[in-house]
Design brief:
- Helices cover 20% and strands 27% of the residues.
- It has one domain.
- It is built from 3 helices and 8 strands; from the N terminus they run H-E-E-E-E-H-E-E-E-E-H.
- The protein starts with a helix and ends in a 5-residue tail after the last helix.
- It is an alpha+beta fold and 171 residues long.
Amino acid sequence: MKKLRLSVVVLLTASILMGCIPSRATGFSVFLLADQTPATELSVVNLDDVELREEPILSGDDIITYSRERHEIELTAEAYERIRQLFTLPAKVRGIPFVVCVGPDRIYAGAFWTPVSSISFDGVVICQPFERDERVIRIGLGYPCPEAFTGQDPRSDERILQSMEAAGKLR
């Protein structure tokens, strides 16, 4: 009888504790970093060692469409405004690092970048959006121009495209 009670207590405790585990998006998501790792150091860190914030800045629910060719993401109004809020003053001219994930898989890192920055960046970028009506962000290569990018283009990773296709958002 004592074993049964102990088992019930352990199961209840485990259930309660599991409810305290931060939720993670199951499809495509973009997470900001939990620490202050500079965007310029992303190419030399192991993505599995980078601590992410508990909730994504963007998830599949925020996405209306994803363009396979142009890597443009049409967002809901709420998500677009969240991205715009990243660029409040003072300007973060060294970028705001992010990690693109599909479920638990960390696919690649990049940075949100403001056009007022005079610092070049050789990674994946999402530049500051200005249009209020379009609600589209573009995942680009390099800042200030694609020629600044080094490495292989990770944006067409099959896991990303499959996730978008499964969600009915791939165009």
